[in-house]
Write a structure and sequence with these properties.
By secondary structure, this protein is an alpha+beta fold. About 35% of the residues lie in helices and about 25% in strands. It contains eight helices and twelve strands. It has helices spanning about 20-25, 75-95, 100-115, 145-155, 170-180, 215-220, 255-260, 270-295, and strands at about 5-10, 40-45, 55-60, 60-75, 120-130, 135-140, 160-165, 185-195, 205, 225-235, 235-240, 245-250. The strands form two sheets. Strands 1, 2, 3, 4, 5, 6 and 7 form a seven-stranded antiparallel β-sheet that branches. A five-stranded antiparallel β-sheet has the order 9-8-10-11-12. It is globular, with a radius of gyration of 24 Å.
Length: about 300
């Protein structure tokens, strides 16, 4: 149960939920598979697996939840081929041209005919709540999947007073400054993305390169800023920090992995639980350090 990326949200008010209340709320929106005419369905599933597992896994004051989606795989080429076949059949039988509006109706009919026979694909998106620290952390990056997750969690819970993390300092300015020397506990890696400040500015991506070299300094002198930067923190984890406050390619290093090896989990569920407990304890220290490195949280809007 290692998250690969982090999209952090802050509770804007104290969390009044408890694990049992949240689990009961999620049960009303539990996952169900696609029916014969469904294109997509989504709902909550036990994060540690098992049909009878809890919809909220609580450990050490952290609550793990999981949203599962299922969608039908109907490639556009398959729909187009079936539609062309049906159009050709009508034109041959009735000796007339099928017009655009009729084609749109036929396309809907083809789609309904193909849906029951389509393959399905399932995806899971995990997140954990840290009511004590005031965090909701989604294992994802900015985009529709995370937006849908927070919207469905808010709908299920009835209320979810969260907002994206905002820091006092602009992340791009902070990360750019780190190329001249990172603060204590942080170490700059060998990968970054630089972008011109203008709307149509160019992007330079560097990997496996000395970020203190002349080439990088030339880009900085030309006004580019760092929008993504590979770093290590306290030799405990590595990641790529972004100017959108997302944490990408998160990896826990040997000193953390060795702690997991000492736990001697005997079942898959026990190992998942141990990973989750260890991960959340590490991130409970990492996230405040990240906020501090970006100048603290921005003042709440008036």
């Amino acid at each position: 149960m290692w998250f690969k990326s982090l999209m952090p949200f802050r509770f804007t008010e104290p969390c009044t939920l408890d694990p049992d209340t949240l689990a009961e709320a999620l049960a009303h929106a539990a996952f169900r598979p696609c029916g014969s005419q469904d294109l997509v369905t989504c709902g909550w599933v036990p994060p540690l697996g098992g049909e009878d597992g809890a919809l909220v896994h609580a450990a050490g004051g952290f609550w793990l939840v999981c949203l599962q989606s299922e969608d039908k795989l109907l490639p556009a080429s398959v729909i187009r081929a079936a539609l062309d076949e049906r159009v050709a059949e009508i034109e041959d039988r009735e000796a007339r041209k099928v017009r655009r509006k009729e084609k749109e109706t036929l396309r809907d009919e083809v789609l309904l005919d193909l849906l029951p026979r389509a393959f399905t694909r399932r995806k899971r998106l995990y997140a954990y709540l840290d009511p004590r620290g005031g965090w909701l952390v989604v294992n994802g990056t900015p985009g529709k999947a995370v937006d849908d997750f927070t919207s469905l969690l808010r709908k299920a819970a009835g209320s979810l007073p969260i907002a994206p993390l905002r820091t006092a300092a602009v992340p791009a300015s902070v990360l750019t400054g780190w190329l001249g020397g990172a603060p204590a506990d942080w170490q700059v890696g060998d990968e970054c993305e630089l972008r011109d400040a203008g709307e149509e500015g160019g992007i330079v991506r560097c990997k496996g390169q000395d970020l203190g070299g002349d080439e990088i300094r030339t880009h900085l002198a030309a006004g580019k800023q760092v929008t993504r930067l590979a770093v290590e923190w306290q030799e405990r984890l590595s990641c790529v920090l972004g100017d959108d406050h997302a944490v990408r390619r998160l990896r826990f290093l040997d000193v953390v992995q060795e702690q997991l090896a000492d736990l001697n989990a005997e079942t898959v569920a026990e190992e998942l639980d141990a990973r989750f407990a260890l991960m959340t304890l590490e991130l409970a220290a990492f996230l405040p350090a990240l906020v501090s490195a970006f100048g603290g949280e921005a003042p709440a809007a008036a």
